[in-house]
Request: fold
Amino acid sequence: MKIVYKSLDEIRLMRESALVVAAILDEVCQAVVPGISTWELDRIARAAIKREGVTSAFLGYAQPPYPAVTCISVNEEIVHGIPRRDKVIAEGDLVSVDFGSFKHGMCADSARTVIAGQGTAEGRRLVDATRRALDLAIAQCRVDNRLEDIGSAVQSCAEGEGYSVVRVFVGHGIGKRMHEDPPVHNYGTPGRGKRIKRGLVIAVEPMVNAGSPEVEVLDDGWTAVTKDRSLSAHFEHTIAVLDDGPWVLTRPSSSPGVPGHD
Ligand code: MF3
Ligand code: CO
Reply:
């Protein structure tokens, strides 16, 4: 498989796609309150997709065909949680909202974990560490660094906090398709892996577990949970590598070569 590097014009198109993803994620995340079902959260995203005139990257994806436009993964659910009418958010839940769509034929993909209501210190510590792991990974997305520098940054942050990193799911190249080469692992050895070049666009998505890194997939064929049912958090951004540094396409405050902040 080959990495498709993007021109600056293509990256600018991806930025437009990514800003829509960021806006829709904002809308869904703001709706995360105790008492709402994950099915209702998905409906908010469906309405926003219609309004914005974009196409879901998730609906109908793979086998069995993914049945929704968001993945909503609560507490011990790591990723790929299928929205359900009977999955109702409770006070303190950790809710990962993952959303991807196409605009101008270009895909953007992003996820955030938010806490419903006040939450606990334990939940906040896991969410903050996972967000920080992604920020440290983004800082490694520079020309002439190596691909494993990214995963290594995630791993040392997460493990340094006493957490574990999920290994069976990875980040990915992204562009005209949601999943392109290269796979982007959330662990690694500094200085190893392919050299990072200008025009690389990747979705980096650390999944961090409070307990063991082991994963189990539920009978619905999608929902991935921690084997020990410990809490898990997930953040994802779509990032373009330019000569001056990373441009976090799904982060509105980022500009070419400047990562910005959430
Ligand atoms: N952001 C996830 C990924 O990159 C979610 C896609 S799974 C899907 O794989 F089935 F919903 F598309
Ligand atoms: Co992704």
